């Protein structure tokens, strides 16, 4: 969604705006993520009285034809060096130089890894099963499906519908696009997709370790997890790299999105990194979002009881996080996000336009927490020309809090109405602008006269 060019883009014309507009300049630190451990540790080696153990991590029970990426960790926290992988039975499981295991036939094979002068071994168990796909197909029955070759780069090359308990492993092969409709319990992994992966009406779905040149979406889905995918968009003009809409309890975790926006005033590339529209109880966490000409993570319509945490957003034309269309936010937490190269950390306002859903909820911004975020570097971007315009529609703004944010690279922000926001301490602000700033990061809640609508 592009609040910047609203006056210039016929498809994104704001027709109404509320009496409240929130602009923030904040920032965060991305917390480290810890992988689960598996496999068997080697006998410890002692160096300078410090015991060091090498551990193999990853899934070690596989259906024939599937793959698993194994990784290594050293107990002292150092990075493994001089890594070597071996399998004792290539007829059961093979392992690449990077630790990717491929299940070849039923049985058990031992995978041995050596690194940093240490050795570890893990047993890989392969069970029979799996349906081999060698052409574009429609799947309507439960089972494990494995791509045995690259498939044509055409729309809808793989279609899954009206079934349950489907597992598809592309094994690193390429295809055009994947469409999943009205399925429960489905997993799609290790796919190179030149088009899109679209899920509609899915209950309990997973999209993981895929590489796309277009977008991933889940519409009307519940318990859908979009995890560890790489989205490197090559076609201009897409709304987002990842989209979740009209569902709930969905998770967008540890993905990488590059929208192709080169920076500057022109709206080139992809609009947003992640769009969350009409969703509740979602988790948007640990994603690396870069090069979008509007907002890194944008909410549209009703967004409630959701968490946006630990994301890194780089080179966003308007803001790191925000919502500008039919904004109805309640009970959300925006925490520990890091924004680099954006005009502001966050922007929230209310406008009606094409991106709004059919329900067009009334404006609300209630009981949201903005905690521990960081704006690490200010960029010019496309957002410098944004001005809130339109009719005063009213709507509650109350119970929101800010704590431990770093606002210091930009002037002290303006929160309207200021009565709807509490300073919980630990915030850092730049110098205030007379007649504009009304939040001083000193816990006082003191205000100055401000214009109702203003440019930051």
Could you characterize the architecture of this molecule?
By secondary structure, the protein is an all-beta fold. It has three domains: 1-33 and 267-456, no CATH class; 45-127, Immunoglobulin-like (Sandwich), CATH 2.60.40.1080; 130-253, no CATH class. Strands 1, 15, 17, 20, 23, 26, 29, 32, 35, 38, 41, 42, 45 and 48 form a 14-stranded mixed beta sheet that branches. The chain is globular, with a radius of gyration of 24 Å. It starts with 21 loop residues before the first strand and ends in a 27-residue tail after the last strand. Residues 2-48, 383-392 and 447-456 have low confidence and may be disordered.
Number of strands: 50
Largest sheet: 14 strands, mixed
Low-confidence stretches: 2-48, 383-392, 447-456
Radius of gyration over alpha carbons? Answer: 24 Å
Q: What fraction, in percent, of the residue positions are helical?
A: under 10%
As for the number of domains, it is 3
Arithmetic mean pLDDT: 84
- What is the 3D shape? globular
The percent range for strand residues is over 45%
SS element count, helices: 0
Structural class: mainly beta
From the N-terminal CA to the C-terminal CA, the straight-line distance is 19 Å
Please identify the oligomeric state: single chain
